[in-house]
Structures are given as structure tokens and as C-alpha cells.
Specification:
The complex is a heterotrimer of chains A (about 300), B (about 350) and C (about 250). Chain A is mostly helical. Chain A contains twelve helices and two strands. Chain A has a two-stranded antiparallel ribbon. In chain C, the strands form two sheets. Chain C has a six-stranded mixed beta sheet with strand order 5-6-7-3-8-9, with helices on both faces. In chain C, helix 5 packs across helix 6 and helix 6 packs parallel to helix 7. Chain C is globular, with a radius of gyration of 18 Å. Classes of the chains: A mainly alpha (about 300), B mainly alpha (about 350), C alpha/beta (about 250).
């Protein structure tokens, strides 16, 4: 049997992999704090809720220009987080449920907007689900002497912002994630930090969903940090490990997407889906390692 | 039934003289099926949703419904080799049930065996399974020349074109689910309220959780191919959350949630049948959301309005008491008046 | 050995390879009131939970009335820590008490009027009948504790395991808990109670179990509740012993 590697074309696959890595690393950087605050599903909620933002921005401007859509989507994403908090606090509703109420409602609203304006709007709901990372190299802009995909530029900016945020606020983030009450009494503005985190999650989700779709972006937010959490107890190590894991999964995922289906006589498959699958496999491996570790620790303590 | 109109063409009907009368009078056979099927689904999802909410697993439905995609993709792949049509409904449902149950098992495994919080487990299973589903579906499309595209209706639903067969499947899942909710209400409530006490009473919490998840999987599976994932999630979460504003008792809450779910579906599907360009799944969600908003403000037990008034009254009383104390008046004299 | 309500042998419990309880062995005679005493983190709650099978045990054996807990469930009632449940849950006080009857009613059968009558009777015995129809979050801490005790009472068990029933309750609740303990003992039954206030140990209990990850001592109050044993249990950190004394002193003034 031939396990051939498909031809990796640097000018195409290289850029796709770069975009995937940028998505994965920026998402997993902020994703760590979602996982630690038990708010992983906020990524899911926000990425669903941006649909009406896209639709409204589109109806407003009548074009598919990226900036208004980006802003509209990010605003609705933040609105989703704020409304979730408000319903949770003032209605005493379980956080998961208030998330569910808000994001399904916003999603339905977006759907109605799109359907009602179907004759004017050429917004493909399918694109929201899959993302279009394969089309990355088709939309180039020139940056000085270089031709760079537009998506790569956007994602690089987001990555830098997230990196600055995580490095700059690391101490505060770890404290507020660990013990929000203590943080508040020490004078840290836990609430402001939280809002900032929500804004960055929304911006990251919006920047990434164009490439990997609104559901698979959850895989990038949650899976690498959760995998890292199984392997380490130190927050700094967890953050760095999650970024590395995300990047590796992104590259391997794209490689697998163009290679693995060939083994079974298919053409290539979706890169975003494959990245999620590879991240999932990584999580399973980490799970097995942590089980083994627990078992050996147990037998050690039994001997002691 | 109105003769001469194409089956399933609700939009065509809307152009007739008075679509509202036609829709709300249930004059159209198709509307009747849609209304019946979604209302049944709303009743069952509302009832079981109470327990996923109280178990703090409201978004379990979110994870499980997305996690059914790989099973559906595999069903497309497998059905032809069994000599069945590609979109054979029993095979699809079988595939979705299997992948839903595997996902539920994965969530419980992560929950029981690691220190990760439950929401992380849900997020992992949701996104990884969905990714695998996308991969499988993209392969399916290569074999079948794109005829298997079911993804968008999987997410967004195709409620307006529910067939009598879909309705049959929904009834087959909804009725047993409602019976199960009635029979297991006590055990489920105890596990949700006080797990330790439940276990010392000899109740197997694992078994209780598994039965609950299996029931959720069953409801989602039958609803999924009819109304789509987003509506399914909404029906599991919103009526239950709204019902909490009206009562302090689990048994009452189950009834209220089921009724609210049913009513949302009834009005939502009627509205979308009557009005132009209102997709039924999304309309149902929006009706449910409106009911939720109303309950949150005016719900008799926890509505914001009443809580605000009680809060004001308390403040008023405290001030009176303070004033009375200032006037050196014994407090007991005033207690009767308030 | 059937005169022992609870017997524990070589019990070891570990959380993630960290031992919480090590090689515990003791017996509790039927008809006694036992206080479990020890500093924070001594594993008091874990001991009760391990006995009831709520946390996995690494080694050792626990027997209730000479048999495994599985076969003695109907004779053992458990009052968990108040913090362990969701007090925001949509349920009335009387329904919580009726939970104690669920085993008797059967899991698939509805709660009937006579069961609710029994639950109300237990609430009346605890002096909080007037709150029977309130949602539990509307009760004060002491009232919530009494609801838990009422739930244990309707179980009509022979052995009661209580996790800090005296923590953060008002004086009148404390008094009625003590009365219930006396009534349990008067009926020839047994209670094992996790307790914090060293000042009241002599008054409330006739036996004591001193614990700090290992068993320090177990026996009658007169034999075991001594200065040297306390010092061993609290590791010389006598501040723990002094603090309740101060609290009582303030309470008296």
C-alpha cells in the first residue's frame, strides 16, 4: 500500500497552514482562561451569536466589505457575553442556560434577517459553518513588496493583541481565574478584566470563523487548553503548551486533510474539520497519559 | 386540505386571500402536520429540559446535537452498501443515536476521570465530533456527487417541510420521553438536588445520568432531522429556564416547561405558516425567547418586577422601623400595620 | 460483634495519591452519641463519606451492624453538610423531607398524601412546620439545617451520620439539634456527629473520636477528651482549642 504524501505546495498550503496556526494560537491563548473560568462554552455561544451581526452589517452597508462585518459581528459577540451575564445575575438563571437562551435567540434572529433579505443578501449560511480556509491564498493584498493573504494580516493583528493581553495581564488573569472574590478584595478590577477577555474572545471568534467556521473555532478555543491542563499544573506552562499544541494540530490537520483521504481513494477533505479531529486525537493521547500517571502515582503511594 | 396547491408550499398559501385565517384555522394539511409534530417535540423537550437545567447541564443538548453529525455522515456512507437508499431515515437515526451515545459517554468519561470542568468536556466533544462529521460529510459528497448535502438543514432545520413520517418518528420519541419524565421525576430531582443523599439512599447516580442522557439523545435525534440543531438546543433550554420563574416546585416546573415548549412551537409554526419569509425553526426560537423575556420580568415566583417590588417594600419597612425607633416607639405596635 | 453500630478497620483513603485518612480502626457501640473532633483538613467529612461509599476507599473495611452498607441502607441515615446541596433548587421544605421516604415509597411511585403527612410531622418535631411550603432558599441557615434533620428523622434509621449539624446555626436550632440527639439516644439508637466546638463536647456527647488523618483516640469522653490527646490531634496549635472558648466567652457577656 502506498501511503503517499500529497504534494504540499508552499505558495498554497503554506499560507493555509500559516492562517490555521494563527487562528489556533490566538484562540488557545485566550481559551485557557475560558477553560479555567468554566466558561468554555461561551466561545460556542459567541461564535453562534455573531450571525445577526454579520447580517445587520451586510444589510446596513449593502456590501460584503470586511471591516463593517467584522465590527458588527464582534459587537454582537460582546453583546451575547453581556446578555448572558445579565440574565445569569439578575434572573438567577444557571450560566449554561442563560448562554443557551441568548445564543439560540441571536442565531434565530440572524437567520430571520438573512431569509427576509434573501433577495438582496448573498450571505451563504453554509459558509458560516464551514469557514473557507482553503480559499486563504486566493485573497491576497500587497504589503510593501510582499503579497500576503488578507486573512493572515487580520489574524496576525489578533494574535499580537491576544499575546500582549495574556503576557501583560498574566498575573491578574491567573488571580481572577483562580479566585475572583480575592481579586476583587485586593483591588483588582476583576470585572473589567473579564469584560476585556470577553471582547477579545469575540474578536478572536470573528477573526477565526471566516477561516474555520463558527463551530470548529470552539475546538481551537477549548481543546488545546484542556489538553494542556491534563498535562501540567502550572498556569504558565499550560498557556505555552496550549499554544504549541494548537499550532501543531493546525499544521498536522491541514497535512492530514490533503493527505489522509488519498489513502482511501478520496480527494482532499476539509482542513478545518481535520484540525478539530487532530486536536481531539491529541486530547485522547493526553487523557491516556494522565490516566497512566494517576495509576503509577497510586501504586507508588500504595507502596509507600 | 386545499386542493391543487403543491404539497409543502406554505409560501404559496401565504399569497392566498387571508393566509392568517388559513394558517391559524389549520386548514392546510401540511400546516397541521408541522404544528402537531413541533408541538409534540416542544412538550417533550421542555419536560426533559427541566432536568438537564437542574443538573446544570443545560448545554448538554448543544453538545449532543452537534456531536451527532459524524453518525449522520456515516449513515450516508453505509446505507447504500446495505442496499438502502442513501437518505434512509432509519439508518440516519441509527447513526445519529450511536454517535450521540458515544458523545454522551465521552462527556461522562471526561467528567468522571479528569479534573476538567464539565463545560470543557462539552466544548471538546461538541467541536471535535462536529469536525469529524464535517470531514466525513465532505467525503460523502465526493462519492455521491454532492447529493447528500444535509448539513445546512442539519443546523438550520427544514421545519416547514416536515412529512407525516417525520411526525411519526417525533411522536415515537416524544411520548415515551414524557412518560419517562413522569416516572423518573423523583429520582432525577433527588440526584439533581443532593447527589450524596441520593447515593446513600441506594440510587445509582451513574445509571440515572445515563438514562437522562439517553432520553435527551432520543429527543434530539428525532427532532434534529426535522427542525435542526439550533431549534433543538433552544427547545431544551429556553422553556425550562422560563418555567423556573413561575414556580418553586419541580413537578410544577416540568408541567410549565412542557406547556411553554408546546405553546412556543404551536405559535411559532403557525406564525411562520401565515407570514411570508419567516423560517419556522427560527420563528419558534424567537417565540420561545419572547416567552422567556416575559417570564423573566413577570414570572410569579422570581420575576424581576416582583423581586424589585419586594426589595422596595423591604427598604420601606426598614426605614419605617428606623423611624419608629427614632420616635422611641415600641416596634411591636407597628408590626400589625405593615 | 453485632453490638457495634459501626466498625471500621484499617481504613485508608487517598485523593489523587495524597493520603487523607490512614489506617483508621475503631468501633462505635450501639446506643452511643459520638462526636468526631479534629482540626480543619483532618478528614472528618471524608471519614463519613468513605463509610457511606461516597468517596472510594483505597483499603480497609467498613461494616454497619456487622454488614456492608449496601445491605444496611435502610438502617443508616446521612445528614450532609449544608453547603453540599443547591439551595436554589425549586423544591419546598416538605418535599425535601419526603426524600427521606423515597426508598420506602419506591423510586417509580409517586409521593402520596400520607407520606407528606409524615414529612410534616417531622417538620413539626423540628419546630418548623410553618415553613413546610416555603421554597428552601427562603429559609434561614438554622431552618435549613432542621429540614435536613427532619429528612433524616423520617428515615427512621438506627444510625445517624451527621456532617456538622451545628455549623453556623442559631442558638435555638442548636438546642433542638441537641434535643433530637438525646431523643435518638433515648430510643436506643446511635448518632455520629462531626463537631467543631470543643466547649460543648462534654455536654453533648458520651463518646469522642479524635482525628487528624490518623486516629488519635477513640473512646468515652472521660477517657479520651483530655488535654494531651487534644494537643496531639491539633498538633500543638492550641489556638484552635482557645478560639471556641473565646467565642463562648463573648456569647456569655
Amino acid at each position: 500500500m502506498m501511503l503517499a504524501t500529497a504534494d504540499w505546495l508552499w505558495e498554497l498550503d503554506g499560507w493555509i497552514a500559516v492562517a490555521a496556526v494563527l487562528c489556533a494560537v490566538s484562540a488557545s491563548l485566550v481559551g485557557n482562561f475560558l477553560v479555567l473560568r468554566k466558561q468554555s462554552l461561551l466561545a460556542d455561544a459567541i461564535s453562534h451569536a455573531i450571525l445577526p451581526g454579520l447580517a445587520l452589517a451586510f444589510l446596513w452597508t449593502g456590501s460584503r466589505q470586511s471591516l463593517p462585518m467584522f465590527v458588527g459581528a464582534a459587537l454582537v459577540g460582546v453583546l451575547c457575553a453581556v446578555m448572558t451575564q445579565w440574565i445569569r445575575d439578575s434572573g438567577k438563571v444557571d450560566e449554561g442556560a442563560s448562554m443557551g437562551v441568548v445564543f439560540t435567540t441571536l442565531f434565530a434572529l440572524g437567520l430571520v434577517l438573512i431569509v427576509r433579505a434573501a433577495d438582496r443578501v448573498d450571505l451563504d449560511p453554509g459558509c458560516v459553518l464551514f469557514g473557507a480556509i482553503e480559499l486563504t491564498p486566493l485573497d491576497m493584498v500587497s504589503l510593501g513588496r510582499f503579497e500576503v493573504p488578507r486573512v493572515v494580516i487580520t489574524l496576525s493583528v489578533v494574535l499580537v493583541v491576544n499575546l500582549l493581553f495574556v503576557v501583560g495581564c498574566f498575573k491578574e488573569l491567573s488571580l481572577t481565574s483562580f479566585d475572583p472574590g480575592l481579586a476583587e478584595t485586593l483591588g483588582f478590577r476583576a470585572k473589567w478584566l473579564h469584560q476585556l477577555l470577553m471582547i477579545l474572545v469575540a474578536v478572536t471568534a470573528v477573526a477565526c470563523f471566516e477561516s474555520v467556521g463558527n463551530i470548529l473555532v470552539v475546538a481551537m478555543f477549548v481543546v488545546p487548553p484542556a489538553t494542556a491542563r491534563l498535562l501540567t499544573d502550572s498556569l504558565a506552562a499550560m498557556v505555552m503548551l496550549s499554544a504549541v499544541l494548537g499550532a501543531v494540530a493546525a499544521v498536522l490537520g491541514h497535512w492530514a486533510a490533503i493527505t489522509v483521504p488519498g489513502w482511501f481513494g478520496f480527494a482532499s477533505t476539509t482542513t478545518a474539520g481535520m484540525i478539530a479531529v487532530v486536536s481531539g486525537l491529541g486530547f485522547v493521547i493526553a487523557l491516556l497519559i494522565s490516566f497512566r500517571r494517576a495509576a503509577s502515582a497510586r501504586s507508588l503511594s500504595a507502596r509507600a | 386540505m386545499i386542493e391543487g396547491l403543491p404539497f409543502g408550499n406554505v409560501w404559496g398559501l401565504a399569497q392566498a386571500a387571508n393566509p392568517w385565517v388559513r394558517a391559524f384555522g389549520l386548514q392546510d394539511h401540511n400546516t397541521r402536520i408541522v404544528v402537531l409534530a413541533t408541538t409534540l417535540l416542544g412538550l417533550a423537550a421542555g419536560g426533559i429540559g427541566v432536568f438537564t437545567l437542574l443538573r446544570r447541564r443545560a448545554l448538554m443538548g448543544d453538545a449532543l446535537s452537534h456531536a451527532m453529525l459524524p453518525g449522520i455522515g456515516l449513515a450516508f456512507l453505509v446505507a447504500p452498501s446495505l442496499g438502502l437508499p442513501e437518505k434512509s431515515l432509519p439508518v440516519l437515526i441509527g447513526g445519529a443515536v450511536i454517535s450521540g451515545l458515544v458523545a454522551a459517554a465521552a462527556i461522562l468519561l471526561i467528567r468522571w476521570r479528569t479534573r476538567l470542568p464539565e463545560d470543557a468536556a462539552l466544548g471538546i466533544v461538541l467541536s471535535v465530533f462536529f469536525g469529524a462529521g464535517l470531514v466525513i460529510l465532505s467525503l460523502v459528497q465526493q462519492t455521491s456527487g454532492g447529493s447528500a448535502a444535509g448539513l445546512e438543514s442539519f443546523i438550520y432545520g427544514k421545519t416547514a417541510s416536515i412529512t407525516i413520517r417525520d411526525a411519526g418518528w417525533i411522536a415515537a420519541a416524544a411520548v415515551p420521553t414524557l412518560i419517562l419524565v413522569g416516572v423518573l421525576m423523583k429520582a432525577w430531582a433527588l440526584v439533581c438536588f443532593d447527589e450524596g443523599f441520593a447515593r446513600t439512599s441506594g440510587l445509582s447516580v451513574g445509571a440515572v445520568d445515563i438514562v437522562m442522557m439517553a432520553a435527551v439523545v432520543l429527543v434530539i435525534v428525532t427532532g434534529l432531522q426535522a427542525v435542526g440543531a439550533i431549534l433543538m438546543i433552544a427547545l431544551l433550554v429556553i422553556p425550562a429556564a422560563a418555567a423556573r420563574f413561575w414556580t418553586h416546585r419541580v413537578d410544577v416546573m416540568v408541567v410549565v416547561a412542557a406547556v411553554l415548549g408546546g405553546v412556543s412551537c404551536l405559535f411559532g409554526s403557525l406564525l411562520s405558516a401565515a407570514a411570508e419569509d419567516l423560517p419556522s425553526g427560527a420563528t419558534i426560537v424567537l417565540v420561545a425567547a419572547a416567552i422567556f423575556g416575559f417570564s423573566m420580568v413577570l414570572g410569579s415566583q422570581r420575576g424581576l418586577w416582583w423581586r424589585l417590588r419586594a426589595h422596595r417594600a423591604r427598604r420601606e419597612r426598614t426605614r419605617e422601623v428606623a423611624l419608629a425607633a427614632q420616635a422611641d416607639m415600641p416596634l411591636g405596635q407597628r408590626s400589625g400595620g405593615s | 460483634m453485632s453490638d457495634l453500630a459501626l466498625s471500621v478497620e484499617d481504613l485508608t483513603v487517598a485523593y489523587q495519591s495524597e493520603p487523607v485518612l490512614q489506617d483508621l480502626s475503631f468501633g462505635v457501640p450501639t446506643g452511643s452519641l459520638v462526636g468526631i473532633i479534629g482540626p480543619n483538613g483532618a478528614g472528618k467529612s471524608t471519614l463519613l463519606k468513605a463509610c457511606l461509599g461516597l468517596v472510594p476507599i483505597d483499603s480497609g473495611e467498613v461494616r454497619f451492624f456487622g454488614a456492608a452498607h449496601r445491605d444496611m441502607r435502610h438502617r443508616v441515615a446521612y445528614v450532609p453538610q449544608r453547603e453540599s446541596v443547591d439551595w436554589d433548587f425549586p423544591i419546598r421544605a416538605v418535599d425535601v423531607v419526603a426524600m427521606g421516604l423515597y426508598r420506602q415509597i419506591g423510586w417509580f411511585w409517586p409521593v402520596r398524601r400520607r407520606h407528606l403527612r409524615a414529612a410534616r410531622a417531622a417538620l413539626e418535631r423540628m419546630g418548623i412546620l410553618e415553613f413546610a411550603d416555603r421554597q428552601i432558599s427562603q429559609l434561614s441557615g438554622g431552618q435549613q439545617q432542621r429540614v435536613f434533620l427532619a429528612r433524616a428523622l423520617v428515615q427512621d434509621a438506627d444510625l445517624y451520620l451527621m456532617d456538622e449539624p451545628f455549623s453556623a446555626v442559631d442558638a435555638s436550632t442548636e438546642q433542638s439539634v441537641v434535643e433530637i440527639l438525646r431523643a435518638i439516644q433515648a430510643a436506643g439508637k446511635t448518632a455520629i456527629v462531626i463537631h467543631h466546638d470543643l466547649q460543648t463536647v462534654r455536654e453533648y456527647f458520651d463518646r469522642v473520636l479524635l482525628l487528624n488523618r490518623r486516629l488519635i483516640a477513640s473512646g468515652t469522653v472521660g477517657d479520651v477528651f483530655t488535654e494531651p490527646n487534644l494537643r496531639r490531634a491539633y498538633g500543638g496549635r492550641l489556638v484552635h482549642v482557645d478560639r471556641p472558648a473565646m467565642a463562648v466567652g463573648w456569647g456569655d457577656s
